[in-house]
Write a structure and sequence with these properties.
Rossmann fold; 36% helix; 10 strands; 21% strand; single chain; 8-stranded mixed beta sheet; 214 residues; two-stranded antiparallel sheet
C-alpha cells in the first residue's frame, strides 16, 4: 500500500482519491479548507483522509497535483521542502479561461506547467500524465468505445515506472500508456487542451480522451 497525497479536492482530485483508495492505497486529499471538503466529499469512501496542502505533501510517498493549473506553480513552489525527493504526478493544465469559462489560451506557451514545476522543484521527480482527457476517464478508461491513451512525460525513468504502476491501479492497461520521453514533451500534451473547448461546445460534457490511434 502506498501513501498518496492529492493536492486539490475538486472533481479531479476526489475522483482520483476514490479509485486509488479502492485499489488499497491510503489517500490524503489536501486543500486549503480540509474540514469543508471533508463534509462536501463524504462519498469518497474509506481510506481517504483530509488535510491541508502542506501536511498532505509532507506525509505522502507520492503526490498528485490536481490544483487549478493557472495557480499550481505558485502553490507547489511554496511546498518545495515537503516535495523534495518525492514523485509529483502533474495532471493539471495551465490555461486562461475563455469568455464561456472553458479553457482558452495556454499560460505557458512554448513551455508547459510540468516544465515550470520541474524547474521550480529541482529535488522532485515530476511526471506529467492524464491531462488529455475529461476527469472521469482518468479512473475509468475502459468505458470509452476506443481504448484511450495516457501519455507520460518526465526526466526520471524510475519515477515514470512507478507512475505506470499507479496508472494500472486506475484501470489503465500497459498498451494504453505512451511514454513520450523527457519533461519537455509535456508541452505537446498540454497544448492538446486547446482542442477540448471546441469538442465540449460541439458535443457537450461527456467522456472523451485525446488519444493515439495506430
Amino acid at each position: 500500500m502506498t501513501s498518496i497525497g492529492i493536492l486539490g479536492a475538486g472533481r479531479v482530485g476526489t475522483n482520483l482519491a476514490r479509485k486509488l483508495a479502492a485499489a488499497g492505497h491510503h489517500v490524503t486529499l489536501g486543500s486549503r479548507n480540509p474540514e469543508e471538503n471533508a463534509a462536501a466529499t463524504e462519498g469518497t469512501g474509506p481510506g481517504v483522509s483530509f488535510a491541508d496542502l502542506r501536511t498532505t505533501a509532507r506525509t505522502a510517498d507520492i503526490v498528485i497535483n490536481a490544483t487549478p493549473g493557472d495557480s499550481s506553480l505558485d502553490r507547489l513552489t511554496d511546498l518545495r521542502t515537503e516535495l523534495a525527493g518525492k514523485i509529483l504526478v502533474d495532471v493539471s493544465n495551465a490555461t486562461r479561461h475563455a469568455d464561456d469559462g472553458l479553457p482558452g489560451d495556454l499560460c505557458y506557451p512554448g513551455s508547459s506547467l510540468a516544465e515550470k514545476l520541474q524547474a521550480a522543484l529541482p529535488d522532485t521527480h515530476v511526471v506529467k500524465t492524464l491531462n488529455t482527457m475529461l476527469f472521469m476517464v482518468m479512473t475509468a478508461p475502459e468505458t470509452l468505445a476506443v481504448p484511450p491513451t495516457a501519455y507520460l512525460s518526465g526526466d526520471d525513468q524510475n519515477a515514470k515506472r512507478t507512475v505506470t504502476v499507479l496508472l494500472g491501479d486506475l484501470g489503465w492497461q500497459p498498451a494504453w500508456i505512451e511514454d513520450l520521453g523527457g519533461i519537455t514533451t509535456a508541452r505537446a500534451t498540454e497544448a492538446m487542451i486547446l482542442v477540448v473547448p471546441h469538442l465540449l461546445r460541439r458535443h457537450g460534457f461527456k467522456p472523451f480522451a485525446v488519444s493515439l490511434a495506430s
